[in-house]
Amino acid sequence: MRDYLTDRYSTRREHDGSWTIFDLFTGLTAEYQGRPTILMDDDGSKSLCIVMNALDKQRRRQTSK
After folding, report:
1. Rounded to whole angstroms, how far apart are CA atoms 23 and 45?
2. Are 10 and 21 in contact (CB under 8 A)?
3. How far apart are CA 65 and CA 40, in angstroms?
4. Is residue 1 pLDDT above 60, yes or no?
């Protein structure tokens, strides 16, 4: 199986109504450029999550060769 095809990140809505991007592999809050991906709005979290998954898949694809 090609592990680099699997999404690593997803979003979740928090109790305060904000959004967080988290690591599906660990369950922990994800970081982007050294910052936690917390207190985000819905659209921003979804857009950044797409970018983070694409970057992660690219990294994993390169290391699997």
Report:
1. 13
2. yes
3. 35
4. no
